[in-house]
Design goal:
Blueprint: H1 6-15, H2 29-38, H3 48-59
Length: about 70
């Protein structure tokens, strides 16, 4: 079923468990950035997809993980 707005698409994605699974292949940096934006409401400790995206961005030197608030 197509979703007409990005907000509805994001709501559905956040409630469907399969959208939080780890990817089969590593993300590219651009894809990881998009995943981080899409999963902004998720915690990396619980969302394997966001965790994988965060790992890519950390490895690329684009994100410095917080030492005060570890994921």
């Amino acid at each position: 079923m197509p979703y007409n707005t990005l907000a509805i698409h994001r709501l559905v994605a956040l409630t469907e468990q399969q959208s939080h699974l780890a990817p089969d292949i590593p993300f590219t940096v651009d894809c990881a950035h998009a995943v981080m934006q899409f999963h902004v409401g998720c915690r990396a400790a619980f969302c394997l997809r966001k965790a994988a995206a965060l790992d890519v961005l950390v490895a690329a030197g684009l994100v410095v993980p917080s030492t005060a608030h570890p994921r």
